[in-house]
Amino acid sequence: MSKHQLIKFGLIISLLVACKGKKNDPVPVPPIPAPAKAILLLPAQNEVCASGENQTSAQSTILFDWSDAANTDSYILSLKNLLTGVVTEQTSTVSNLKITVPRGTPFSWTVTSKSAKSTTATVSDLWKFYNSGVGQLSYAPFPATLTAPTMSQIINYTSASITLTWVGSDADNDIATYDVYFGKTDTPILVATNKADVQSLSVAVATNTIYYWKVITKDVKGNTSDSGVNQFKIN
Predict the structure, then answer these.
(1) Can 40-131 and 142-234 be said to share one CATH topology?
(2) Which residue among 138, 158, 214, 216 is least packed, with the fewest CB closer than 10 Å?
């Protein structure tokens, strides 16, 4: 076999091997998209629900509605009674549910989007509403949401003080003050009273200490609500 024939033969073998390799290359699998975040619609944020189906003096049926979320085949609606702290959950394959709830009671709710194809679950924003009682004209503020430090957060010591922050809301929009309780036991003491437009407070902290805090919200009519106690640790 001539030198020219050997080169030609080698090229043919190389092409055959290359083609065989390409044929056996694995096809990349596209990533599975996570369920999208549902947008809450009804009851509206901080709304007073004065109407509903099947009303009695004790309860009524409320329509919960949210947007369809992409890449989602089921939803979990989590409903929290803000007076008792009890959370109930219901599952739906469509973007609405009717639930019978007590009247004269504040609630918060979220919707979690889920998919059988994904291990990721996506939680909506948290909204609050008040299911009005019979003839009720005045409403207690919603319990303040304690935003920082978060529950059971561990914080490395970098300063002799830390800022507590929270978010208050009220269906009547008549919050007057926030009483802030803070201390080293699970029954913290009153340390400050803030005006309605001030939703933060700087407090002194030390290393290797667990702290507890809560906020009592008061409106101009004397109605109050309790955030519940959160705790955090300074390392």
Answers:
(1) yes
(2) 158
Query: Alpha carbon 231 to chain centroid distance?
Result: 18
Phi-psi domain of 134 (left: phi exceeds 0; alpha: psi -120 through 50; beta: other): beta
C-beta separation of 109 from 64 below 8 A: yes
Domain range annotation of the chain: 40-131, 142-234
Number of C-beta neighbours around residue 64 at 10 A: 23
pLDDT tens, residue order, the chain (235 aa): 555 555 555 555 555 555 454 556 678 888 889 999 999 999 999 999 987 888 899 999 999 999 999 999 999 999 999 999 999 999 999 999 999 999 999 999 999 999 999 999 999 999 999 999 988 888 999 999 999 999 999 999 999 999 999 999 999 999 999 999 999 999 999 999 999 999 999 999 999 999 999 999 999 999 999 999 999 999 9
Beta bridge partners of 230: 213
CATH fold group of domain 142-234 = Immunoglobulin-like (2.60.40)
Options 3.50.50.60, 2.60.40.10, 3.30.1330.10, 3.30.420.10; CATH of 40-131: 2.60.40.10
pTM (2 decimals)? 0.80
For residue 6, what are its two tokens? Answer: 């050997």
Question: Rounded to whole angstroms, how far apart are CA atoms 230 and 153?
Answer: 9
